[in-house]
Hints:
With 316 residues, this protein is α/β, with parallel strands linked by helices. The protein has a single domain, classed as Alpha/Beta hydrolase fold, catalytic domain (Rossmann fold). The protein is 41% helix and 16% strand. It is built from 13 helices and eight strands. It has an eight-stranded mixed sheet with strand order 1-2-4-3-5-6-7-8, with helices on both faces. Helix 3 packs across helix 13.
Amino acid sequence: MxxxxxxxxxxxxxxxxxxxxxxxxxxxxxxxxxGRWAPPPSNFVDVKGQIVHLRDxxxxxxxxxxxxxxxxxxxxxxxxxxxxxxxxxKRVITMDLPAFGLTGPSASGDYHGDTYARFVLDVLxxxxxxxxxxxxxxxxxxxxxxxxxxAPERVERLILVDAGGLPFEPISVPLGWRIATVxxxxxxxxxxLPRAIVAQGIxxxxxxxxxxxxxxxxxxxxxxxREGNRRALVQRLQQMDHGEDAARVxxxxxxxxxxxxGRDRIIPPAIAQRxxxxxxxxxxxxxxxxxxxxxEEDPARTLVPVLAFLGLKQPA
Length: 316
C-alpha cells in the first residue's frame, strides 16, 4: 500500500508539473555537452571499454591523492568548491560514475554498489594510483566505504558526506527520482523533462534553497539529458540494495571523517550517528543548517574539518 501511495503521489506531482508547462527535452549527445561542461582540466579516459569523464588536478607527486565520488544524479562538478582550495597542495581526482555525468551509461547495465567500487579501483589503476584517501557524498559515500572494504590495503583515509549504504527512511525524495521508479512514466521522462522538476529537486537537497542559482540548474538539467543517463538512472534505482550490506561498515578500520547536513531530508542525520557508532574512532561533524549536499552548498565551511583531517593548513 505504501509503495502504491508513493507512486500515486508521484503521478499527481508529475501531472501538476505538466500542467505548469510541459517541455520536450530529448537526450543530448556527449559532443553537445563537452564544450560547456568538460573544459580543461577535464579528460576522457578509456577504462576497460568505458569512456570515463574525470579530472586529475594538483601535484602529481602527491603520495596520497584524494579521490572524491559524487552522488545520484550528480557529477564531478559537485566537488569544484573543495577542489579549488585543495589542488594547490593536494592531488585530487574526481570522476563521473557510470549512469551519471558525462561518463554516461555502462554497457553492462550493472549499477550495484560493489560494481561501482570496482570501477573506482579500475580508474585508479588506469591512473597508476595505489594508495589514496577517498571521500564521497550520498551514493558516492557508499561507493567510498565499499572501496575501502574491498581494498583496505589501498585506502588510508575515508570521508563520508551524507553517505548511503545503511537502511533509512527518507523524509523527502526528489520528484525526478520518484518518477524514475514509475513504469511508463519513466519512459516518458526520457523525452520530457520540465526544467522546473530539476530545479525543485536541487532546491529539495539544499538546506538553503535560495542558494540554488540558474547556472546550477542549467548544469544538472543539461547533464541529466546526457544520452542514456535517464534510462540508466531507472536501472540504478531498481538495483539499490537498501542497506543489505550495512554490516560490512563495521569491518572498517581506518581513520574516518563523517560530515552531515542537519537539514538532510533524503538521508536523515540519525544515519550519521549510526555510521559513527559502526566505525570505531570515527569523527562526526554536523552542519545544522545545510542539506544533503553540504560540500556543494557551502564548500568553504565544510572543507575546514577536511583540511584538519588531511593534515593540511587552513588557507590564509
